TrEMBL record:
It holds the Pfam family Glyco_transf_9. This is Glycosyltransferase family 9 protein. Keywords: Glycosyltransferase, Transferase. It comes from the Bacteria. CDD domains: GT9_LPS_heptosyltransferase (cd03789). The keyword Membrane does not apply. It comes from Acidiphilium iwatense.
Amino acid sequence: MRILFITSSRLGDAVISSGVIERIRLAHPEARLTVACGAASAGVFASLPGLERLIVFEKQSLDRHWFSLWAEVVRHWWHLIVDFRGSALSLLLPAGRRVIVRGGRRPGRRYVQIGVALGFDPAPLPVAWTAPEDRARAAILLPEGGTVLGLGPTANWDGKIWPAERFGDLARRLGVPRIAIFGGPGSDERARAAPVLAALPDAIDLVGAVSVPEAAACLARCALFVGNDSGLMHLAAAAGTPTLGLFGRSRASEYAPAGVRASFVAAPGPEGEAPMDGLAVDQVVATARALLGTTVPA
């Protein structure tokens, strides 16, 4: 049995789709899985059990990327195709069943929209796949011995980023013994994380230092993750880490972190329009303490 998943080029959207992929995988343990996605999200699926092939495709002019992907997958008969990109590609492929997941058609959480489209009620929560070597690397980077607070001070655009100095204030007020700062690869991520790294010089710097599954394994070792609306925020929640997402110029009603212990705080104002500097440290600290479930110094 062959199953093809066509999923996002964005890390966060790929993580959000992981719950239904896992549910389908568990229902068909003998299936050979192919995932087609963008380079930024490929790491989400690197440790997916049953993965036969990972196809990385990037946007090309005149939508030529769709033709390139079609050429890669048309030679097989697919028992099931799930297209999270909402494209018409699956209509041009030999398949027993096709599910095309459209975006923005229903109100509510994105992971629920996807679950409903696949017929799951309740919708499965996202998951994070890791291999033994990912977990071994995480044990070296974040060894046992003291609670770890994970911070995610970056995002894909500046309007989603909480002021850097407030991350420092938050960390000091929570009083957690160890702090790990997460961020993606590249100079932009490094530049956005730099002020927080400077404010917390004793923190463990994991910005651009780990792969996606290694990051998931590291996040699973944190007692709490606090971060801007980003792919890392979704990955933390999927890893089962208590996760607090910070929202301002993005929609928490659709993209709040989805996990067994996940919450969010939003800057005051219209959803998706409120500036992040309106989000007070006190509000974040109060919710973070509740997620930690312990009494920490004020």
